[in-house]
């Protein structure tokens, strides 16, 4: 069961301030339930965990089986919401070293993401890496025209057609895109690629539980039925109107109470390397949803205890506008104990026989207390253990909290007008037809 606690933030605001946000939360809740607030056209994710296309879901499972049987590497091309959720889930639930394990042990192909930057070196090295491995590919883009994935897909489509021939390449390429329009849809109709849908009413950063995330996640050997069941449990728990019974609404309210007091940066903190990319997914979710109209909480992250030895100084003692949200997994996920050592030169014998989890937990507790003393409000989201079910719950928790939090700060949590700025300039500088006037203007500034 997911739990949310803000007891370590209570020195920084009065409980009553949460109460005073209740009316606004109720309006946000109604907006989501009735799908009628700002950005209502992108609220398809609210009931997705129970209201999804079951026929497509089984096609996803079938495609994942095909990929498992026929590929050593599954190349997933996408950027932003078109890869972050899948990457987060796969990392959270797979062996840390699965890249180095053979396929028999892994029972699934390696999933490698690309098309999420414009590095030629990365693509070239990936082409080299897969040259003696069987590959399959999933290109994921709602618009079908995002530059980064479109370039990567061009490169890999050419490569696969050359290597496998057009017909076999067709069997190995899966497309996830809009159901009827866009460049990718057109291409996939023309070439006969099996295609999956990014629903119109779900934006990229809310799409992990659609085919966008589900195909890569299933191909990595993760049980997507359990993931959806966990999300459905999340939907049941976190769609309750009453804030006292709804941890997601409490989280949204506390963040906003802190923000209004000048805490402008939230750091998502984990104590497990497997959660590093959950933070990356969370950053897009909250950053794109809330950072607009010259306001919003800046979402950051640290991976502890690693970053206590790099960012710890700043968090403890630097500019005081930070608050932290710790994601904690209650149960030990390994039985590894610290060994006894006769010489005890490192002085660690007082820990001998202790499970690593116990030490990690004390590190977490000690850090929270110390940061609170240093003026950093601390929130905590915890789950009993980490598996596909609880991950589904966590995903829904953050999605729901994010939407309500955006409404509380009077922004549309479902658009992202600011992303166009860099695209326009890049197109102009690259000489894309239609951007001639902007090009001259920008070049004069360089
Ligand atoms: O799936 P697409 O259309 O390629 O978009 C990818 C990402 O780009 C954005 O639209 C921002 O440019 C994100 O919102 C989205 O997740």
In short:
With 446 residues, the protein is of the alpha/beta class.
Number of domains: 2
Mean pLDDT, to the nearest integer, reads 97
Cα-based radius of gyration, to the nearest Å: 23 Å
Q: What is the annotated CATH architecture of the largest domain? A: 3-Layer(aba) Sandwich
According to CATH, what is the topology of the largest domain? Rossmann fold
CATH superfamily annotation of the largest domain: Glucose-6-phosphate isomerase like protein, domain 1
- Structural classification: alpha/beta
- Total number of β-strand segments? 10
CATH top level label of the largest domain: Alpha Beta
Give the helix level as a range of percent. 40-55%
Task: State the end-to-end CA separation.
Answer: 54 Å
Which regions contain 5 or more consecutive residues with pLDDT less than 50?
none
SSE topology string: EHHHEHHEHEHHEHEHHHEHEHEHEHHH
Q: What is the number of helical segments per DSSP (H or I, 4+ residues)?
A: 18
**Overall shape:** globular
Bound molecules: 6-O-phosphono-beta-D-fructofuranose
The order of strands across the largest sheet is 1-10-9-7-8
Report on the architecture of this protein.
There is one protein chain. By secondary structure, the protein is an alpha/beta fold. The protein folds into two domains: 223 residues, Glucose-6-phosphate isomerase like protein, domain 1 (Rossmann fold, 3-Layer(aba) Sandwich), CATH 3.40.50; 176 residues, Rossmann fold (3-Layer(aba) Sandwich). It has 18 helices and ten strands. Helix 9 links the parallel strand 5 and strand 6. Helix 4 runs parallel beside helix 10, helix 7 crosses helix 8 and helix 11 runs parallel beside helix 16. The termini are far apart. The site of 6-O-phosphono-beta-D-fructofuranose has 14 residues, from loops.
């Amino acid at each position: 069961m997911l739990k949310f606690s803000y007891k370590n933030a209570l020195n920084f605001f009065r409980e009553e301030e949460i109460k005073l946000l209740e009316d606004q939360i109720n309006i946000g809740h109604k907006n989501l339930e009735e799908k009628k607030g700002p950005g209502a056209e992108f609220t398809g994710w609210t009931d997705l965990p129970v209201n999804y296309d079951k026929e497509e879901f089984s096609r996803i499972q079938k495609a994942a089986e095909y990929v498992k049987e026929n590929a050593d590497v599954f190349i997933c091309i996408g950027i932003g919401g078109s890869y972050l959720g899948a990457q987060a889930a796969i990392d959270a639930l797979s062996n840390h070293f699965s890249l180095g394990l053979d396929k028999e042990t892994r029972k699934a192909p390696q999933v490698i993401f690309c098309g999420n930057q414009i590095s030629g070196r990365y693509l070239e090295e990936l082409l080299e890496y897969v040259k003696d491995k069987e590959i399959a590919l999933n290109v994921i883009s709602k618009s079908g025209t995002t530059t980064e994935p479109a370039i990567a897909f061009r490169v890999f489509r050419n490569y696969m057609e050359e290597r496998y021939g057009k017909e076999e390449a067709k069997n190995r390429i899966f497309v996830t895109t809009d159901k009827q329009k866009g460049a990718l849809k057109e291409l996939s109709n023309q070439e006969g690629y099996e295609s999956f849908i990014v629903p119109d009413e779900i934006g990229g950063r809310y799409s992990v539980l659609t085919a966008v995330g589900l195909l890569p996640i299933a191909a990595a050997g993760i049980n997507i039925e359990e993931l959806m069941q966990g999300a459905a449990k999340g939907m049941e728990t976190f769609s309750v109107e009453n804030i006292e019974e709804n941890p997601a609404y409490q989280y949204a309210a506390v963040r906003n109470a802190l923000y209004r007091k000048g805490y402008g940066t939230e750091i998502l903190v984990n104590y497990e390397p497997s959660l590093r990319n959950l933070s990356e997914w969370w950053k897009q979710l909250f950053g794109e949803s809330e950072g607009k109209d010259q306001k919003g909480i800046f979402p950051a992250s640290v991976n502890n205890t690693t970053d206590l030895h790099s960012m710890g100084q700043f968090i403890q003692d630097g500019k005081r506008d930070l608050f932290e949200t710790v994601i904690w997994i209650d149960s030990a996920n390994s039985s590894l104990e610290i060994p006894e050592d006769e010489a005890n030169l490192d002085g660690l014998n007082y820990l001998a026989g202790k499970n690593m989890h116990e030490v990690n937990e004390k590190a977490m507790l000690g850090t929270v207390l110390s940061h609170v003393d240093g003026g950093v409000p601390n929130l905590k989201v915890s789950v009993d253990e980490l598996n596909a079910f609880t991950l589904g719950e966590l995903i829904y928790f953050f999605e729901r909290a994010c939407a309500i939090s955006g409404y509380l700060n009077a922004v549309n949590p479902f658009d992202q007008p600011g992303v166009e700025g860099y695209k326009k300039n890049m197109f102009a500088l690259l000489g894309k037809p239609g951007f001639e006037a902007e090009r001259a203007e920008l070049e004069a500034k360089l």
